[in-house]
């Protein structure tokens, strides 16, 4: 396995560590590369996204770390870019495209805030139908096809609270067909999909995103996978990476990708 993580949050958004602390921990673990992916500026959400001013500081602090770790570990500047983010990504080495909101009736409804919030959204905007809510999420996720990004983040984030709450049935045919229809569109441009262990690290789920039926389909469609920890806490930088690799293997993959100085490189799993 090439030790690396491209989905890393810091105090610039909703993480608990500074970029320097994250880099020090990654170096200690023997990482070949580390990429930062702060939540890109999104006009209606300044709770967990970076402000424009903070993004500038974030980019310059990462540039300093690149120099500091030169020859030891590659550091990359990235952003986790929501469908509704607004920021020029030309200074980034890579971009993760993610859906965190569903736009409905002029409102941006959060998909991953809490089970209680999701339940309220389902009742208020979807007539109490959890499946209609999930289908609306996947309609947004399909649009990642046309977002200028390298990696598709946590494709089925909408299922975050489903192990704890009966918001909708992720085993139902309706759910699976909404997810697969969106995946077929999002995969058209052969973007890299993320196997993301972040919700496991934070105790919301026992399995990574996306669900295994989606991973199998990603493989069938000929797209590549990158394993990430969606890290918000340096102690969890490689959380469940061996389990993630084993799951990939069980779903048909024999390799995953990591970003190095040579670009996206394959390694066997
Ligand atoms: Zn995210
Ligand atoms: Zn994230």
What would your notes on this structure say?
The chain has a seven-stranded parallel beta sheet. A two-stranded antiparallel sheet has the order 5-6. Strands 10-11 form a two-stranded antiparallel ribbon. The protein has one domain: TIM Barrel. The model has no long low-confidence stretch (mean pLDDT 97). It is α/β, with parallel strands linked by helices and 269 residues long. It is built from eight helices and eleven strands. The protein binds zinc ion (ZN) (2 copies). The site of one zinc ion has 5 residues, from loops.
Helix and strand layout, with pairings?
Layout: E1 4-5, H1 19-29, E2 33-39, H2 52-68, E3 74-82, E4 94-98, E5 101-104, E6 107-110, H3 115-125, H4 130-142, E7 151-152, H5 173-186, E8 192-196, H6 198-201, H7 212-220, E9 225-228, H8 241-250, E10 255-260, E11 263-268
Parallel strand pairs: 1-2, 2-3, 3-4, 4-7, 7-8, 8-9
Antiparallel strand pairs: 5-6, 10-11
